[in-house]
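Hi all, posting the design record for the shared folder.

TITLE: backbone redesign
STEP: 1 of 1
STRUCTURE INPUT:
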């Protein structure tokens, strides 16, 4: 992925401040995005 240098630096600093690897945070963000998109495309049936 290509990122703006400032965005990357800020993201990395935030991950470090939580004592978490940036890759772990990215995986969580990606999983959340995928879940959100799937729910938008395939809403749960109404009861």
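Okay, here is what came back for every position:
SEQUENCE:
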């Amino acid at each position: 992925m290509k990122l703006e240098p400032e965005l990357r630096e800020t993201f990395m600093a935030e991950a470090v401040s939580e004592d978490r690897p940036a890759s772990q945070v990215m995986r969580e963000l990606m999983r959340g995005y995928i879940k959100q998109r799937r729910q938008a495309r395939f809403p749960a049936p109404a009861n």
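COMMENT: The CA atoms of residues 30 and 36 lie 10 Å apart.
Let me know if anyone wants the other runs.
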